[in-house]
Amino acid sequence: MPAATAYRLLGVLMLMGGSAAHVQADTPPADLPALGAMPEAASVVGVSSGGYMATQLAVAWPERFSGVGVLGAGPWGCAQGALSLALNQCMMTRRGLPALDTLEQRHERYAALEQVGSRDALRQLRTYVWHGDADATVSPALGDLLAKQWQGWLAEPDEQLRYVQRENTGHGWPVAMPKDAPIDPQSLGDCHLGGGSHVLACGDNVAADMLDWLYPERPVQESEGELRRFDQSEFAVKGLADSGYVFVPEACDAGGCPVTVALHGCQMNDQAIGDTFARYSGLNRWAEEHGQIILYPQTESSMANPQACWDWWGFAESTWQINPLHDTREGTQAKALMAMVERLQEAPDAPAEESTQEAD
After folding, report:
1. Three-state SS letters, the chain
2. What is the chain's alpha carbon radius of gyration, rounded to the nearest angstrom?
3. Measured distance CA(284)–CA(261) in Å, rounded
């Protein structure tokens, strides 16, 4: 193992032995709360496999989202239900680049069966695409294709799409670590090479740049927030972990805040790096300033999915399916994620005293 990689992994393990492990050991996860979140302005963002899944959700339910952000991933439908394509055409490009015409035919077939959302709803989304030009895990050419795909879908791509190509940057999610963070940024992934936790110590606040784009002219609504662990077991499907995280600013306890679903990448789940992504992605700082709920669902590793990726090639679907529906409204992980969003958007239960008074 190279010394730099060993050092990063040691740093991550030290972090897991600190705050993240403490939260897990001493705080049993509660149910995901109903917070009366705003249904009109939800967004979904993700990196790597989480980026592929973010696009899948946005395409499946465009009427349920206002924006989508994707880091380090390629075009929607790329794997077409085949692991061999996922590895050789959607990460590396040994088989050449995927053909957007073929993927568009896939989308049209799903649309005819009402397995994805309407074209009109898709045209309205705001979209943010980011890719490092030194990404050795997912070829930067695939980021170009994703941006081109969205350009063909959006009503006014010049107004709705922001595509960022960062020079000398590897695979992962760039962060600007706060000065008081109890972790050395160098224990994270290297900005140029990626690796380690895939949380890249680049000094870039990509979370703020992305959310500013997805929510233009959003008013300030400052309040402190709390990162909470919640029980995912009621949403259990193949590939999901027992618990996830949700960040809730105090201003959002009363309802009316939008939700952003934030999807980690492979090797970035709680088992691998603790709450590093959920705590240091930069999304929470923006959420505290603007009144936003951030949902961090978690995957787990398994024989079928050893790196705990989100399902963007069909592993979580029934083994007898010739054409897995992971990238449609019927996808098992996609439905579980939407159920979590729906829970957050439900009206909170009335306090016990109010319920008693109404009964009297």
Report:
1. CCHHHHHHHHHHHHHHHHHHHHHHHHCCCEECCCCCCCCCCCEEEEECHHHHHHHHHHHHCHHHCCEEEEECCCCCCCCCCCHHHHHHCCCCCCCCCCCHHHHHHHHHHHHHCCCCCCHHHHCCCEEEEEEECCCCCCCHHHHHHHHHHHHHHCCCHHHHEEEEEECCCCCCEEECCCCCCCCCHHHCEECCCECCCCEEECCCCHHHHHHHHHCCCCCCCCCCEEEEEEECHHHCCCCECCEEEEEEEHHHCCCCCCEEEEECCCCCCHHHHCCHHHHHCCHHHHHHHHCCEEEECCECCCCCCCCCCCCCCCCCCCCCCCCCCCCCCCCHHHHHHHHHHHHHHCCCCCCHHHHHHHHC
2. 20
3. 12
pLDDT tops 90 at residue 87 = yes
Q: Whole-prediction pTM value?
A: 0.90
The 10s digit of each residue's pLDDT in 32-85 is: 999 999 999 999 999 999 999 999 999 999 999 999 999 999 999 999 999 999
Distance separating alpha carbons of residues 150 and 76, to the nearest angstrom: 9
For residues 11-39, average pLDDT: 64
Would the pLDDT of 315 be above 80? yes
Confirm if 38 and 258 have CB atoms less than 8 A apart. yes
Which residues are registered as beta bridge partners of 127?
68, 161
Measured distance CA(205)–CA(222) in Å, rounded: 18
- Which of 216, 208, 286 is closest to 67 using CA atoms? 216
